[in-house]
Amino acid sequence: MLTDAKIDSALKKLADSFLKEQRAIEGQSDFKGWGQFIGQANRNQVGLYGTSAGSICVSLAYGHSRIPVPVVDYLTSIWNQRNVPGTKGARDFALTTRRAFFLMALRQSKHPKLQAIASEADRELRERILPDGLLVGWQIDKSTKAATGSDTATCVAILAYALTGKKSDIPPEIQRAASVLQERLEGAPSSNSGLMKFSLCSLGLALDRTKLRPRIKQWIARSKITNDTRGQDTLDFWDYDYQVGEGLASRRDYLHVPADAVDILLASGLCGGNKQLLSALDLAEEAADSFIDSGLYYGGREKATSLSQAWIAFALERSKVLIAANAERKPWYLLWRGS
């Protein structure tokens, strides 16, 4: 049976997996972090996504006190490179999705040495909101950026606040972005079921139920969790430019979020029915068992990505809301059954 205590134990097992696998950065022995994969022998890659994900997992389990100092120093260093052409920081932070996930890690960790950076990251992320309300997908400066807003970048930006604080504390600009996103979604729903659920997830967690449009609430309520839907991961690709010297270079980036995490987070908004809630609790218990048994979540894949661990960890923490809601609903359910 899934309990708050079991969730806490599972999150600690996951955090321990990251803490055991800190990686030094070649040529920069004072910095440590994590890379794309976790639980893989002889891996030496360290990056923004992986280190942000590791910080999230450790802080969810233990708070900021267990985040290693070399990890804090690495995050500070790469942030300070964001406007230096030709650096990894400049390339990574050109992307709004990476900036948003970085801010998510800073807000979750609440590390005293990262608070000044968190304020800067917060302000600069909100500066990427376009006049139409959505966030731009990538930006180098005010004149060099994507021409249109990005639904995916907007969703991650919304979740950077929704998963790390109260709805009432989400900045008005981000609340407006969520409102614009639901208008767009209602007018032109995504044909990609994974991306559609990810959008619904961000809306349900950021907006009060009274502010959700009727059609959006219907889509959330009709979002089922079955063996078939467990393959509907959130996966999106996009191209972007970043500065190298006085010129520009182009790359392709992507975001992947496991379907299990999205389904649990979507249910935790409590806009669906009892069946959705119970199915999400089953997914959460399976994830907790995976962390307890192996220290990682694989989701049927051969390798465990750091990013997936963070999304599942957030979902597992949020499933405490589902446990509480189920405890409140159960007497009425039993009464209805005639028990």
Question: What does the secondary structure layout of this molecule look like, with pairings?
Answer:
Blueprint: H1 4-19, E1 23-25, E2 28-33, E3 37-38, H2 48-62, H3 69-80, H4 88-93, H5 96-109, H6 115-126, H7 151-162, H8 172-187, H9 193-206, H10 214-221, E4 234-244, E5 247-257, H11 259-268, H12 274-294, E6 304-305, H13 306-337
Antiparallel strand pairs: 1-2, 3-6, 4-5
Number of helices: 13
How do the helices and strands follow one another from N- to C-terminus? HEEEHHHHHHHHHEEHHEH
Report the principal-axis shape. Answer: globular
The biggest beta sheet is recorded as: 2 strands, antiparallel
Q: Which structural class best describes the helix and strand composition?
A: mainly alpha
Give the DSSP E fraction (strand runs of 2 or more residues): 5-15%
Low-confidence stretches at least 5 residues in length (pLDDT < 50)?
A: 332-339
